[in-house]
Every structure is written in structure tokens, then in C-alpha cells.
Design a protein that fits this description.
Structural class: mainly beta
Radius of gyration: 17 Å
Helix content: 10-25%
Order of helices and strands: HEEEEEEEHEEEEEEEE
Number of strands: 15
Strand order of the largest sheet: 1-9-10-11-12-13-14-15-3-4-5-6-7
Oligomer: single chain
Number of helices: 2
Length: 212
């Protein structure tokens, strides 16, 4: 029953993606331009190939609360393997993703939808990719923002200069702030809590470190 509900709601929520609003945004309007200090930014939260990153996933779709298990592992320099299961261990999706490639190993029929797969590619490429080319840098008090071009979109990485920790990523088009990812972490190598918030469709994913 839980599996069927998850599949139905995840598919339903993505149908409205093409009907989202088009309000203009300026993600760094309160920041000043600064010289680029490093040409490449490294997101180290999922960068250790020796670690299995296991989180409990809580999904909010149209006011419905769903849960499952998210597992990610870096299998080579550029690629991560990701597995989604229900809390009862039923595998929903198993894929490998890098900055340029996306390979599905296993997917249940109900999730095998182009619009869903494209959304997952965007979300988890943004979350798991390690290296990003820096196009511009901005600064305000104890924070810096690094801008990285991503095809027709732009990624913004918000970093605290007090502890050198990444605390937010924003994925935006020229007119819309589409996705934000927030991190709560004790250091810059592992995030205990991650929230993926879609701003144009009613979809929110929260990942909390799974302690055995």
C-alpha cells in the first residue's frame, strides 16, 4: 500500500511542472561582486568513496507525508550510485549519475516516466556532483556565493566564511528560482540534514542521516 501511494503521488506532482509561474528573480541582489578566488568549487558532502551515505527520506507531496530510504555511494571519480527503497526494503529505483551521464539499473514501472526521471536527474546531479566551474563570485559580510553556469540554468553555492561550510545551493533559470537545497552539517565533509525544496511544484524532500 505504501509503495503504491509513493509511486502515485510522485508521478502526480510532476505533471504540473510545465504550469509553474514565471516571476523574475535575482538570487544575489544583496551581494557585491568579488574576485573569483578558485576556478573550481568542490562540494564534499558526498565525495568520500569509502562511505555509504544512508538517509531516511521524508517526502512531502500535495500535503501528503511519505517516507523511505535513500542510499548514495561514490563509485568512481565522477559517478555516484543511488538507491531508493521503501521503509520495508522494496527497491523503487537504482541509478548511476555523473555530471554528464545517467544510467538506470532498476526502476519500477510506475516511476518509469520521462518527466520524473528528468526531475530526479536535476535534483541529484545538483546534490551529488563534486566539481563545479566557477563563473562569478559574490560576497556579503561573512558569506560568499559562487555562481556556476549549468546549460540554460545557473547554480549558486552559498558558503559561510566563518567555517567554510556550504549551507545552501540554488538552481535557477533567468526568471525563476527553481530548486533550493539546504544543508545542516557539523563540518564540510558530511551533512546530517538535507532539504530539497522545489519552488515551482509542490515537492519537498528531506534527508536525515540514518543511524543504525
Amino acid at each position: 500500500m505504501q509503495k503504491s501511494t509513493i509511486l502515485f503521488l510522485l508521478t502526480k506532482v510532476l505533471i504540473v511542472v510545465f504550469f509553474s509561474s514565471c516571476a523574475s528573480v535575482n538570487v544575489v541582489k544583496d551581494y557585491e561582486n568579488a574576485a573569483v578566488e578558485k576556478p573550481i568549487f568542490q562540494n564534499t558532502y558526498f565525495a568520500n568513496p569509502e562511505s555509504d551515505y544512508v538517509y531516511k527520506a521524508n517526502i512531502s507531496v500535495y500535503g501528503n507525508e511519505l517516507s523511505g530510504i535513500f542510499i548514495a555511494k561514490k563509485i568512481n571519480e565522477t559517478t555516484h550510485r543511488v538507491v531508493f527503497t521503501t521503509e520495508f526494503g522494496n527497491k523503487l529505483l537504482d541509478f548511476e549519475i555523473s555530471g554528464t551521464d545517467f544510467k538506470i539499473n532498476t526502476i519500477v514501472e510506475e516511476l518509469d516516466k520521462k518527466i520524473l526521471i528528468n526531475t530526479l536527474k536535476t535534483d541529484f546531479r545538483l546534490l551529488l556532483k563534486t566539481n563545479f566551474l566557477v563563473a562569478e563570485q559574490f560576497r556579503k559580510t561573512t558569506n560568499i556565493v559562487l555562481k556556476s553556469n549549468d546549460g540554460k540554468h545557473v547554480n549558486y553555492f552559498f558558503i559561510s566564511t566563518l567555517d567554510d561550510k556550504l549551507y545552501k545551493i540554488v538552481h535557477a533559470s533567468k526568471t525563476k528560482e527553481k530548486i533550493s537545497i539546504s544543508f545542516t552539517s557539523e563540518n564540510n565533509s558530511f551533512a546530517q540534514n538535507i532539504i530539497v525544496q522545489h519552488n515551482t511544484i509542490p515537492l519537498r524532500i528531506e534527508l536525515n542521516y540514518f543511524k543504525n
